[in-house]
């Protein structure tokens, strides 16, 4: 099926992918936030996270926090408090 779509409907597929990126608004996903927590890049790069994105990701990460390694749990607690202060404005 996918081969057919790419072979005969290439322009439509590309248009669909671009529309999805626009709809997402370039907001990072849960995986992106977890990667930033693991590498320590969240704090310098917090500006790429919008309030709506953070509010959507926060419940998922609150649930995952129990299962993260201890250093990432600490990072998440710091990021959570920091983001609350940043997005409160």
Describe the 3D structure.
The chain is mainly alpha-helical and 89 residues long. The chain has a domain at 27-88. It has 5 helices and no strands.
Supply Rg. 17 Å
Helix content: over 70%
Strand content: under 5%
* Mean model confidence by pLDDT: 78
Distance, first to last CA: 48 Å
Provide a quick synopsis of the model:
The chain has 89 residues and is mostly helical. It is built from five helices and no strands. The protein is elongated.
List the helices and strands and how they pair.
Layout: H1 2-8, H2 10-24, H3 30-39, H4 51-64, H5 70-88
Keywords:
mainly alpha, 73% helix, elongated
């Amino acid at each position: 099926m996918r081969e057919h779509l790419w072979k005969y409907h290439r322009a439509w597929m590309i248009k669909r992918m671009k529309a999805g990126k626009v709809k997402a608004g370039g907001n990072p996903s849960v995986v992106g936030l977890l990667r930033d927590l693991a590498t320590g890049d969240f704090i310098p790069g917090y500006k790429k996270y919008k309030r709506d994105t953070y509010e959507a990701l926060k419940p998922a990460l609150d649930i995952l926090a129990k299962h993260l390694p201890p250093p990432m749990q600490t990072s998440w607690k710091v990021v959570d408090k920091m983001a609350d202060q940043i997005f409160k404005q």
